[in-house]
Amino acid sequence: MKSYKFILFILLTAFITSCEDELEIEPRQNQDSEVTLGTETGIVNILNGAYAIAADADVFGGRSLVSADLMAQTGLTSTTDFRWRGSYGEFRQMYTKSVLVDNAFVRQIYARNYEIINAANTVIENIDKVADADKRTRMIAEANFLKSLAYFDLVRFFGLPYEAGKQNTQLGVIIRPNAIYDFNADLSKERSTVEEVYTLIIQQLNDAYNGLPEENSFYPDKYAAKALLARVYLQQQNYAAARDAANEVIESSGRALSTTYANAFNHDENQIEDIFAIQITKQTGENEIVVMYASEGNGGRGGDVEIRNTYINKFTDPNDDRANFNYVNPDNDRLLTSKYTNQYGDVGIIRLAEMYLIRAETNFRLGTSVGDTALNDINLIRTRAHAENFTALTLPTILRERELELAMEGFAIHDLKRTKGSIDVNADGSELIPYDDPTLVFPIPLREMDANKLITQNPGYGS
Q1: Is residue 341 part of a domain?
Q2: Domain named RagB/SusD: which ranges (predicted)?
Q3: Which of 18, 125, 192, 388 has CB 3.0 to 4.6 Å from 183, enough for a Cys bridge?
Q4: What pLDDT does 183 receive?
């Protein structure tokens, strides 16, 4: 029940950003930070604080997902699937590929992810204050999972895309291996390479997998770590590793597809399809993705992101539940997704349908049938949606199925990059924005550039 979820108000520690937009620990109620860091209760609260930051609207509470969707669209043509209709200039910059270095949403995505990383590092470095050995192991593993989630978000947004078969020496993001306690110190540091960041993410997720239990309430369990690994490996185009990780989650996690497509969304408690979800309560604020995608009556702003016919026309079966999983806002006649209509519903981050799609794609690419055939996996998802089954598959068909199933869930720009796609600017192919164009990468925020004497800005955004 929601009332039994952790309360994301930190009793002993508050989290505020420094000039570098990373985590600073400042105790409340006049407690000294050494007291907080010296008690088991304090360390547990810091870990809860990391979850609280992850649930923030700026990141996994919704804004990171919306940003990934808008970066794959363009405001210059009607050929893309979704249209930005809102008033936020920060999102409009993403939509029109004109992001500025002082974009506040970009700055907060950067800042909040580093706050998660620093909180997790703080937990790991002070874990000796926790008495029970099993609890220590679990908390370290949860901290590593959260760090991996944050680094993966950062490297995909702020670094040029990972490309299989290359050294990937392009700059990724700063790796902070240790907690920062003194923000008056010089924290200047250059960004690590994309390869180095991915290596760290995979190492941390393997550590998390080894330390997490098979069941862990609504916190990440070992299969959440394995599922995130499958996503990371897929982004690297390491298809065998992605296939095997996804297969383990499907076969061993105890999850199953929800009985209907609609049942996978808009719930207050994790459902059988959820592998990891951000918990939202009335005490911890609104689900930000609902705010952007929903009508006023469903807790949103009226539908800042509108569905275009371009997306609806991708469905070949009129009986497909996913094609009809939308509604018209009576206040402005915008066609809106029905995925986000519960203002305090949890934000789904990983669900089992994604694992079937990963297993299907990777089996098809490799000519294997680990777990099942690609055709059976795709048809399982289509059957759930009451769509006609396929009799044969092609890679474009599988990738299209991924678009239809996972649309508006924060995958669009990341999938475009890993499949080396492009955005058609003029609707006739005469001008394309390719997957590795610098305009599809966020700038290092101005605040970071001003504070960090060693960091390099991304191409196209000045020095």
Answers
A1: yes
A2: 329-461
A3: 18
A4: 82
Place of tokens 């997306």: 311
Provide φ and ψ at 274, rounded to 5°: -70, 130
Q: Is there a domain that residue 458 lies in?
A: no
Domains in the chain: how many in total? 1
257 close to 380: Cβ distance less than 8 angstroms: yes
Tell me the residue range of the domain where 300 lies. 10-177+189-451
Indicate whether 167 pLDDT > 70. yes
What 8-state DSSP symbol labels residue 218?
B
Q: With the CA atoms of 283, 3, 43 and 11 taken in that order, what torsion angle do they form, in degrees rounded to the nearest 10?
A: 40
Query: How far, in Å, CA of 12 to CA of 119, rounded?
Result: 13
Residue/partner pairs of 40-45 with CB below 8 Å, 24 or more apart: 40/129, 40/130, 40/131, 41/12, 42/12, 42/13, 42/129, 43/122, 43/123, 43/126, 43/127, 43/129, 43/130, 43/139, 44/130, 44/139, 45/10, 45/11, 45/12, 45/13
Tell me, yes or no, whether 373 lies in a domain: yes
Residue 459 belongs to a domain:
no
Kindly report which listed range (13-17, 147-151, 305-309, 401-405) carries the lowest average pLDDT score: 13-17
pLDDT above 50 for 357:
yes
- The pLDDT assigned to 425 comes to 79
The confidence band for 284, taking pLDDT boundaries of 50, 70 and 90, is: low
The CATH number given to whatever domain includes residue 258 is 1.25.40.390
Does the pLDDT value for residue 150 go beyond 50? yes
**How many Å separate Cα 88 from the centre of its chain?**
21
Give the pLDDT score at 76: 65
| Dihedral angle over CA of 49, 52, 53, 57, nearest 10 | -170
One-letter amino acid for residue 155 of the chain: V
Q: What phi and psi, each to the nearest 5 degrees, are found at residue 193?
A: -75, 160
pTM over the 0.85 mark? yes
Nearest of 336, 351, 348, 260 to residue 298 by alpha carbon: 336
20, 180, 181, 188, 451 from 184: Cα distances, Å? 10, 10, 9, 11, 11
